[in-house]
Structure formats: structure tokens, C-alpha cells
Amino acid sequence: MSALIESSAQQRPLDLLLANGLRVRLLYRPDTPLSAALVEVRGGSHDEPDEFPGMAHFLEHLVFLGSREFPTHEGLIPFVQGLGGRVNASTRARSTRFFCEVPATHLEQALARLLDMLANPLLETDALWREREVLQAEYSARARDLQTLCEAALAQTLAPGHPLADFHAGNASSLRLESPAFIPALHRFHQAHYQPGRMCLTLVAPLPLARQLELARRHGEPLRVGKELPEPALPPLLPLRASRLQLGVPGAPGKLSLAFALERQGVGLEAAVSFLENLATDESTGGLSAHLGFLGLSDGVQLHLPYAHGGQGVLLMDFDWVEGADSAQLEAEVLGWLAFLRASSPWPGLWEERLEILRQKASALEPLDAALAPGLPEQADVCALLEQLRAERMVNLQIGASNRAPNLTSAGFPLHLERLGVRPGARSTTSWRLPPANPYWRSRVTAPVEASLVPVLPGLPGAPEQGALFLRWNPGENGLPHGLACGLQRALRPVLGAAGLAGVEGRLRAEQGGLTLDLLGNATALRQVIVDLLPVLQAPPCWALAQGPRLQRSAMCRQAGELPIRQLLQRLPELLESPRAEAPSILYLDALARFWRQARWQGLGIGDVGLDAELPGMLSPHQPRVGEGGRIWHRLPIEGEAALLLFYPLESVTAESEAAVRLLASLLEPAFHQRLRGELQLGYALACGYRQLGGHRGLLFAVQSPRESVAGLFQHVQAFLVRQYDRLVQLDRVQLRERGRALDQKLLGQGTHFTAYARQCWVDYQARHPVDHLAQVRHALAGLQLDSLLEQQSRLVSGLSCCAIANAEAFEANWHPGA
Fold first, then answer.
1. CATH class of the domain whose range is 244-419
2. Following DSSP, what letter does each residue of 382-430 receive, concatenated?
3. Which is the catalytic residue, given 40, 48, 51, 60?
4. Does the predicted model carry a pTM greater than 0.70?
5. What is the CA radius of gyration of the chain?
6. Selecting from 3.30.930.10, 3.50.30.30, 3.30.830.10, 3.30.160.40, what CATH number does the domain 2-220 have?
7. What is the pLDDT of residues 752-798, one digit of tens each?
8. Which of 74, 148, 538, 752 is the most exposed place for a label (fewest CB within 10 A)?
9. What is the DSSP letter of 241?
10. For this structure, is 791 an active site residue?
């Protein structure tokens, strides 16, 4: 076995089978301080008892609430949150995934908790009743989620008897804890599916494969072997019961979903979809997304695979539909493009280029993302997928705003759904061609920039080929014109789309009253991207610029359909700044030219990247914009459940104060989730942690609740902060030192991963911190005393410097010192 491990290619996963049936997949990633663990259980929503819909999803929640070796407060979620890592789970049709990402130094501790909670959950009765309320809150939120409602609507079109149309989300009504049969059924479901013979453990770490296998065996081999289960027969997806539907959702943006029912697909379906997504979302000239935008039919496309099992699947192509556009023509163009791809297989030149692009992207993924990734596609799987993407397997679902009452229930969610008539005839007007070779994949610019208009910081020694360029424009007195950012985004799509395929991620966005452009990736390609991008930025096509106001309205409409807590989080950065007036819409190039003449810019290059071309606007003095301090209250007119966001900025950012707030956040985050969600069951959606927002750094608390008012939420957060002060006083030096070391490992990871390093450099530069600010924070962390934490906690309790955002006026009466 050791010889096999040593001979395994370092970037390829090593697949093994332990004696108890546990499948193990190991991947060595030497250039990261992080590690990931993923367990996929072969049992999901379609395997649960018919009499208790939602049991699989419920069990996914319950296993986190304490196990034989680790009580709730020492379980996986608080452990990972305390390290600043990532942890989550998802229930699918025939499987359930549990995953986390932590510093590699803590992988074994995380793995021990992960496997113990899956094999030996406590499933205590009191915890079941509390968690059912959390599931009810999640169901209430999902009942307003557009993607959930679309998938529920499409379930109505499949052949009768397919479990996709059944209720699996679970809520207080379906999870009948009062039934004597429920808990025995829950234990039977757990014992049947949560056993090593139905699990696959994936580890991705900088540890040698032999060490990873040692950890997998140490914690995986003791798992008890269970009985083999027969594989259930799959009901057919076809024939379809309907081909054209219209879904009405209050406040929904215009959207068109083309869904395809797939059968007889191979195990590589997810990888094949990733290849098709790469082609469909390509914004470079001649691609599907770019051409539909040029025709005025769609503002963008996304691909989803909400169901895939046993050769079956449902593929969704979601289009941001332009209001007033011809949906029949959009459908015809998409079907024409798919037919062209089938006919032009095996795509000479394109296949090799895109496969290499996907391979490069996969090698750059963080450990957790690598564990979750589907792998590289096989050409035969892509061809098999395209063979089924035909009109006879397709459902056209049109989504629009409507306040009409629901007329049916599908998959447990009330919908207003109507069948439309026979599909109107339309034909594609496009002579499709394969996309040309990517202009940046083998960039023609090789000479480094010798002189730069922006300051340049050194890159990372471990990533010499990586570079970054950040530019920010603050507008003149007239403010940022309405729709300008969206119009420029539209104009830049061909350049940034091609750049993204070549490993340069770029984005232009309206941010804190100004415009910010980020470019990160291969330094050689990046230098060519900026050369091509600047002329378009200053003189975009008139048709693209004119679409800006409409695109901004569409973006605002999509945002209005999101959860209230997400809308508050999106609005926080701009509300922290001093408000600026918004100028009228820009529709003409001469008006754009006036804007650029008044704009003030600043920028930063990192690595072998600089800027020797002239920029629009004038160089700005290096002065970070910081909004007013004190107690600030904002009410946003957002409908839905009560939502509250509290942001406590640092009054004076020093290495010592930032270290204290970062460490305090790592201590408060798991306690905040445990108190407000686990004990009080206030809601499913909440957030807590350290945040950097332009010139502001501080602590964030956010919560949304279906059963509490905003004023009540504020009182609960305030009571939590007071309670945590009393707990901090009891923290001993050993605990403080251990938490500090864990946080230091996270900060070390930020300093070794190029993207995190570059973004931190830009944030520090805007805040006028020295280049080694993060190193100073780590140094301060090593000597941090409890008094520093208590001082920061006292500021939270007093709330004298805080920005509060809510969606209810009643909160204002409670907003006073000492409340």
C-alpha cells in the first residue's frame, strides 16, 4: 500500500476502500495551509419514509447537535467557526453531504468530530423539538426563494410518480414528533444509511498521502458495519406532463428557465455540465451569452443541476430575461446553439483549450472547493448530454411578477402556476461558429512593466506567476450616474469573459459611492487584459452604455427578491459611507467623457503587474473615505420577515485593536449561532463575524426571524453581548492562547494564498496601513491579553459606535445608549 501511495500522482486523487466498506478519496495539495474533509452519505430525501417528509433533511441538521464524544458546544460547527473555517451540509435526492475546511494543523480534530457526529449522534428529544423550529423557519424562507419555487414548478411537469414532485424540505407539520412512530423511524433511517458501506470520505490537505490515509483509518475504521441496502428502482422522468408554464411570484424579476429531463447519463454528468456551463456562460464575442445579450434577449445565463442520480438528471438553463423580449426567439436561439454543438463535435482545438482551462482552474481551487468539484469531463459524457438537450425533453418556464393567490402545491410549496398554449414557432437567426482561440490563454505580452502609474507591491514567492491590479474612481460633485456601472459592465463583458477563461478574474462594480475595478490572476495575461480593457472603459459601445439604467433596474429587482437579511448585507457598505447624490442616467459618450474628467482615481499593483497607460480621471490624494462614526440607524423598505443588522466599527484601527476584534469574533461566532438559533430558535438566517468594508473594520451581527420583531431581535443581541462579557471574564490563559494560535493559522493562510493576500493588500492600502500590517496583527495576536478582549466587548455592549440597519420603523424607539 505504501508503494501505491508513493507512486500516486500528487495532483490526482487516490481512491481506496477500507475493510469496513468506507470509501476514501485522498488529494495532496502542498501549497496551502488549509485542509478539507467531505463525507458523502448515500442516502437522501428520496430514501426517507413516506409518512415523515423531510426526515433526511431533519437528520442532516440533527447530527450537528452533539455526539457521543463531543457535546454540542464542542461539536464540529463551533470548532470550525472558532478557527474561522467553513462548515456546512446539504441534503440531495439520494445523498447527503457534510463538509468543512480548517487549518491543516487541526484536520484530525475536525475529522474526529465529523465522523463521530455522523456515526454516533445524540438525537436527544429536547434537541429534536428545538431544531424542528429551525427547519420551520428555513421552510418559510425557502417558500419565498425564487430558485426553490422554480424547481418546485418544474417538478409538476415530470411523469407522475417521480419523487421530485413530493415534499422533502420538511416543516413543523410534516415532522410529527408527537407521533410514537417518529423517533424509532428516525433511528432506523440513521442506522440504515449512516454506515461506512454507504459513505465516501474525501480529504484534501497539504499532508502527505500516507499521513492522510493514517487519519482516515484511525477515525474511519472504528465505524460500525451496517446491512447492505438494495438500490431502489427509479421512476421515469418522461413523458413530460407539460412543456410550457408560467410562474407568478410577488416582486419577481423577469426570468426564463429552459429545463431538460435527462436519462441514461453516465457518472460523469456533473463534469459534463461544467463543460457546457463553461461554453454557455462565456461572455467573449461569439459565445451564447454574449450573442443573446447583443440580440437584446437575455442579460445572462446560469446552469444548475438540481437533480442527478442513477443516470437521471434535470438540467436548468436560467436566463435573465429582458423585459419585452421574445421568449420564443430566445428558446429558438438556445436550441439552435445546442444543435450546432452536437453537429460540430468533437470541437477541434476548442475541446483541448477548454479542458486545459478547467484543469488549471481545478488546480487553483481551495481545498474545500476541490473536494466538492465534480472532476474533469470526458468528451463522451458531454456528447451524451448534448444528445438529450432537445426540444422534446424541454420545459419552458417563464417567471414574472404576480400577486395572484397560489392555485396548487408542488414539492410542498404553494405556487401560482399556469399552463401555456402550444409553443409558438420560431427559428434561430444565427449562423453559429465555434468560439475563436482565447486571446489571453497564451498571451502575446511577455515584457514586464518597467514604469507604473500605480504603486506596485511584491507578489508572493510561492506564486510568482500571479498578479493583481486594483483601480478605484471616486466621482466628482455630481456623484455616480445612474446605471453607469451596469452599462460599463455590459461593455466590458467580452474582454472580462475571455480573461476569466484565461485565469484572470475581473470585475467592475459600483462600490461605496464610486467605481472599483479588480483584476487578479496570471500576470502575463493580466497585462494584455488591461491594454484591451482601458479603451473600452473610456469609449464603450453606445448600445451597451444605453442599457445601463435598464440593467440597474433589473439588478435592483433581483435584489428585492432575496432574503431580507441578504439585502441588508448588500446595502451595508454604501450606508457606512457619507451619502453622495446620484447623477442622472448617462446615455451618451460626451456625458461619459465629462464624468471621467471629473473622476479621481487611485490604484495598486501586486506582483509583476503595473500600469503604464493613461487612465481616465485624475490621480486622487491617498485619503481613505470614512463615514461618520457614532450611532447610525437606517430603515430600508424591505418586505418580509423581521431582519436586523448591527455593525460595530473599530474606532481606531491599530494592529493591537484589530487583533483583539478578530479574536473576539472567533469566540463570539459559535456562541451567537448556538444562542440565537439553537437555544432561542429565532430564525434560520443569521451571521456573525469580523468584516472589512472599505475603510471600516469591525464586528457584524445579523439575524432574520419569522417569529420575532426587529425590536425584539435587538434586545436578544444586546442580551447576548452582555452575557458573553461575563463568559469572557472566565476565559483562562490556556484557552486564550489556543484560540490565538488557531486564528494565527487562518491569518497565515491569508498570507500564503495569492487572492486573499492581494485583496488584503488593497484593503490595507486604502486604509493607509503599512505593507506589513497583517504581520503586525499576527505579532499583536501572540501577545494579546484578556483585558484587550474585555475592552472591545465593553464597546459592543455600550453600542456608542454602531451602524444599525433594519426593515421596521419600530426599531428606532429602541435605539438609544444602554438599551
1. alpha beta
2. HHHHHHH-SGGGEEEEEEEE--PPP-EEETTEEEEEEE--SPPP-----
3. 60
4. yes
5. 27
6. 3.30.830.10
7. 788 989 999 999 998 889 989 999 999 999 999 999 999 999 999 98
8. 74
9. S
10. no
